[in-house]
Design goal:
single chain, 129 residues
Length: 129
């Protein structure tokens, strides 16, 4: 039987600003967020699986959160109306993307123009043939 001894964590090392977003906001922005923060997400996940110790990935986790905050701040600045219309549609329609293709198209276009990012949703999610 292994016994693990946890050292006390310094709360200052783990404190970070939280992302103040509802599930609809995260759901609507997830594909672009994934592309925007791809490097930070990949580094975090790789280290998390390699170490199998969440304490070892605190700094990487902070970078993921910081990147997400940066993304949503820029989104609010450059595509606020388009994104708000889209996440509200997602929220109103119980997170069914298929019912929000019109707002998604406008939002995707804004993100492409301002961030040069595509959503990279699989075809079966976008409704494309």
């Amino acid at each position: 039987k292994k016994v693990y001894i946890m050292e006390a964590l310094d709360i200052k090392k783990i404190e970070t600003e939280e992302l103040p977003a509802t599930s609809s906001v995260l759901y609507a922005g997830a594909h672009h967020l994934g592309n925007y923060c791809k490097q930070d997400f990949t580094t975090f996940i790789q280290k998390r699986y390699e170490t199998k110790d969440p304490r070892a990935t605190l700094e990487e986790g902070k970078k993921v959160t910081e990147c997400a905050l940066e993304f949503f701040r820029k989104l609010r600045k450059d595509c606020n109306k388009e994104f708000t219309d889209h996440w509200k549609c997602i929220d109103y329609n119980n997170h069914h993307f298929g019912l929000c293709r019109k707002t998604q198209a406008v939002y995707d276009d804004c993100v492409f123009k301002n961030f040069n990012l595509t959503s990279d949703q699989p075809i079966h999610l976008t409704g494309a043939e």
